[in-house]
Hints:
Structural class: alpha+beta
Radius of gyration: 27 Å
Number of strands: 11
Order of helices and strands: HEHHEEHHHHEEEEEHEHEHEH
Number of domains: 4
Strand content: 15-25%
Largest sheet: 5 strands, antiparallel
Number of helices: 11
Shape: elongated
Helix content: 25-40%
Amino acid sequence: xxxxxxxxxxxxSLVLALIATETGLSRDQVLSTVQGYRQRYVRDKDNxxxxxxxxxxxxxxxxxxxxxxALDPYDHVQARYRIPKGLYDLPSxxxxxxxxxxxxxxxxxxxxxxSLSAESRRALTKLRSLGAGASxxxxxxxxxxxxxxxxxEPLNRALDRGEVVAFRYLKPGDAAPRRRVVAxxxxxxxxxxxxxxxxxxxxGATRTFxxxxxxxxxxxxxxxxxxxxxxxxxxxxxxxxxxxxxxxVAEIDVEPxxxxxxxxxxxxxxxxxxxxxxxxxxxxxxxxxxxxxAGFGPEVRVRSPESLRAAVLQRLAGVAALHRDPPQPGDPxxxxxPxxxxxPxxxxxPxxxxDPHVRPDREQR
Length: 365
């Protein structure tokens, strides 16, 4: 099995190879000799996927501002590529001190696993090609934004390679996960959680998926790729999540001086009366907020929306059921949930008809 080569390593190797040649390299020479391509190149066989990767990499280099030159560009087979050294030099008035280069590398490194990973990889590639070494000991102490969801890395690879993927996704309220087939468009972090913005191949529309609800492995669909769409960007995904967050507001009463008052008060909308126990919270996912609020127990009371209140009551009732003593033979009441003292307004669990504020086309909701 061929070991995977990091994207930034492949691009860096391509830059070095194209700078080193005076007469240029043909496409086959690049694919058969440059690190990151040669490991997957098969002579006299179909290398269509690798050729598409090279075309995308050329676009990436040009986005970096690297002057990639094509000799005889109208013949893709015979065309030769090079980077003229004189055109790639920094302007004479631009200089980076060692400390500045170190800070730039740290800034790129900290985002390697974040929503700006593609941009940070490009920045890191350019810094290396300008002479910023990769062996700085300080990089061992660089902070990282870790993505704990196991689906993050395979989705990120599929995004880089233009691969359609399949996974099983468990929506709240469903008894079993459902298989989804999507073309990844962006991975973004919003409200402390990672989301996949993708084109759903079954419904023919974009959907947003919460990574923590992906069940099992993310697998590439054989012989199925997609082309980049400049209209489907991370910015679009974040704008949609922001709009959803703004439209959903929960009204919650908190116990003054409690842990809930401190934690939720920092995130909530400031009330007109500073002494008021009422907190207004924006949210994107009703079920995640319900999990959090149930953890505060009697320190909180949900006023609205009703669907959130019902979800919190359901969780509290479930906890009470798990901790009650098992019924003994002869007990007059062996069914139902006993009265729950200390939990305000527990008058049964109302039927959940759904939250009219939550948009139905967002898969994570």
